[in-house]
User: Fold these one by one.
Assistant:
Number 1:
Amino acid sequence: MTIPDWVQDAVFYQIFPDRFANGDPGNDPPNVQPWGATPTIWGFQGGDLRGILYKLDYLLDLGVTALYLNPIFLAPSNHRYNISDYYRIDPLLGTLDDFHVLLDALHRNGMRLILDGVFNHCGRGFFAFVDVLENEVHSPYKDWFHIRRFPLDAYGEGEAQNYAAWWNFKSLPKFNTDNPAVRRYLLDVARHWIEQGIDGWRLDVPNEINDDSFWAEFRQVVKSANPQAYLVGEIWEPDPRWANETHFDGLMNYPFRAALLDFLNGASDALHFAETVEGLLRLYPRRNAYAMYLPLGSHDTERLFTALGGDLTKVKLAFLCQMAWIGAPAIYYGDEIGLEGGKDPDCRRAFPWDPADWKGDLRPWVQHLIALRKRLPALRRGTHTRLLAEGPLYAFARILGEERIVVIINAGEEQRHIRLPVGDLWSDGRVPRNLLDHQAHPVREGRLEISLPPRSGAWIGETA
């Protein structure tokens, strides 16, 4: 029941399947939108599993080692959180064979795959809910849901009134997970796809199933099928209840994202940022802190480039900090090339495959950071020590054995000359270098000196 060892070495890449790449136009719906059309809640643009497969070279070249896919099961929407059949790949995305070809290709290249698990609610097309709509009080599945009264009003305007639904959306009836038959069904789904070869689950709104026994059983089922499967929960607020041996290995670390964006946008200073993000490290057991999923954006948030005001230097600095932090860094598809977008559904734009549409040198920058993280174990597994938190300046060290990497961030609007105390890390005369530009920074009188332009940072270390 241990946490998978591979997670703290992973760099995730999240894909919203309909918008990444169209590898098979033959499975497009007849009303498919043009690639790159303004996103809507109803429109499909043709992305599919073959598209991901055909762009595998792009992902490998970027350096990511694990994929997280938003739901891929049969559903009547582009987001697919209203699932109709948990055992069937949505035909608009491909076939089960397409899924296995992609999964095999990922595994052959040392990559992992986790899927989005939507176990709190389903769609109106789910067989049990269809039966309830048809047979009402006589349905053998009426206790699979939280029915308040009949007849059900499942369509039309307004909120769900006579049955429980996620945020009262009529299209998302909530499961009754106290029902043993519902539990058996959902746990069988969880086991089935693990046995098909996936490497874990990202659990959608798990706090809506506020039942520790369900998640303990879920964990037992998944880990018994694959002890190295990764379970990550979508929990938006700091809460140690959800990261432990009866719940999840890690959580989506949205609090880190929020704190970093505030810091880079000038809404907080380095001390507040440090206290917040270091407090998150102390809040969880070490093994869970190192298994956190570390996003800068997702299908539920404003795009990183947009959230940072379209400032490329801030975006690069955000990646610099993320790739040196504790946890598994995660890239939301397109953030590495500066894709723009507001809140849902605008953050789900189609990936622009013409490099002329990519912002500056952002992708090579992210690629370089990933390569360094993969080469330097201290950035993945090392301890954390704060060195400086003052005004717009934050510095910390990642230490693993004799390997020490010092990360320095200037989030301010002015160039700063920094004399950083590093006597506990290196003796006088040592000559660590900035791993990002190869400049030497000799240690003198227990300090190293560096000048940082506004909205920039450095990784200082010694490498062979």
Number 2:
Amino acid sequence: MKLIKKVSAGVLLSFGSIFLMLTAVEILTYNQKPTPQEQQKAADTMIGGLIFGLPAVAYGGWLVWSLRKQHQKLLSDRLQSTFYRLLEEKSGTISVLSFAKEAQISGEEAKQYLDVKAKEFNATFDVNPQGGVYYHFHI
């Protein structure tokens, strides 16, 4: 389903962009049309380009947006489940390195996530002599 959404979004954005570019070209060259018939043809082309281009681009953009939101939700769920699992396994003490390794994220992302959770749960932290940060959550 995800692959179908990605392909659909790409096709819709591509075709919609082509129609909108055609409309833009007609708008830019409209006053250069010498006869009324050519101007009418250009006006029809502009209207058709907008009718087909705008909905295609809008729906393709919405598909991209929904895929992005779905990805963010999956990432958030994965981080949360990793966080709670480590809390149970480590008796409430988590290091930035172990969380980053388990969650497969960068150290900076792990530190930011743990800082937010520490504020949320009123946790404390220690820094060992080697510079490692350990968060102590009271469970």
